[in-house]
Design a protein that fits this description.
By secondary structure, this protein is α/β, with parallel strands linked by helices. The protein is built from eleven helices and six strands. It has one domain: 3-Layer(aba) Sandwich (Rossmann fold), CATH 3.40.50. The chain is globular.
Amino acid sequence: MRETLILLPGWSLDGAVLQPLADALAGELQVQIAELPALTSASVSDWLDELDARLPHDCWLAGWSLGGMLAAALAARRGARCRGLIGLASNARFVSSHAWPQAMPADTYATFYEGCAHNAGATLKRFAMLCAQGGADARSLSRQLQAKLLADEPSLLAGLQVLATLDNRIALATFTGPQLHLLAEQDALVPAVVADDLLALLPAGEVDVLEDCGHAFVLDQADALAALMLDFIREVSDV
């Protein structure tokens, strides 16, 4: 099996944060880590246009958090030109609404956005701690994440706005390729209880919850994630 898989990181983080996962996948896949767009535009279409022009076609799209949401939207746009989709700690909507309540409360998001606008450094440090929460060694995970944080504030604020506006319910429901969505039981940013709601959206696919880990499971559970991803790709590829 030598499928090509693109990995997209989460908001505010360098793609190098996904290197442990890429290394765990590399024995059986051609893995490419792609950075998120460095745009000041908060238009979802602009972000998708940039990714669509830059990333190869006819490959698997996978992403963590915001990266997973963008991967889902791009997979729906590409349709048959996308081999499959894998979301890692990624919700259909990041901010809750009446129609999709299992997400971050709107007032929590608004406070976080204001914090990033006025004191990006402190807010990013807090974000790293939230990502690490629930991990086996949260302090170490937080330090690793802080070392991979980006400091381009205009792009960071635009990315937060994309997080707030991107609604993938239709994208997930209409993409007919294979889908796997992996959630973390102790995630402080994407509630694992959304699993059933996500599964109900999919025309076909799987949603699984990994126990005893948080949002940063791409770091501390890289081997377990890679095993699940490879098993799924083998299954749907009949390899």
